Amino acid sequence: MADAMTRHAETRQAVVAQNTANSDTPGYRARDVIPFSELVEGGAPGIGLRKTRAAHLNGSDAGGTAILREDRNGASEPNGNSVSVELEMLKAVAVKRQHDQALAVYRSGLTLMRTATGRR
How many structural domains comprise the chain? Predict the structure, then answer.
């Protein structure tokens, strides 16, 4: 779970950085990543079991799962750009929190394993 949450935060941080970098590009449409809770619950389209080998049954290919979507929160500028730097800053803070939460889950699991093996 911690690994999946970390990878999701990494992907979202890259999208937020790309949006911020293109904040003055005419016609650029802001993008965002499907929330992690939707991915875990299976509510995202095209997200399901993955196969890592051709011999595995009933799974989709490991790559090519689209979790990006157009962000419709920002109003469009006259030049067609829909990036709001303020919203992107708020998203960056949310990504930082998500990454910290994933790190806390990982540390908790590590502490549990150390306790179980008798080492502190």
Answer: 1
Domain that holds residue 104: 2-117
Q: Cα separation of 39 and 20, whole Å?
A: 24
Q: Which two tokens stand for residue 47?
A: 């997200």
Q: Which letter, b or e, does each residue of 69-89 get, where b requires 16 or more Cβ atoms within 10 Å of its Cβ?
A: eebeebeeeeeebbbbeebbe
Which pLDDT tens digit goes with each residue over 89-112?
999 999 999 999 999 999 999 999
Q: How many other C-beta atoms can be found within 10 angstroms of the C-beta atom of residue 26?
A: 10
Nearest to 20 by CA among 88, 76, 81, 92: 88
Q: At what angle do helices 85-117 and 2-21 cross, to 10 degrees?
A: 160
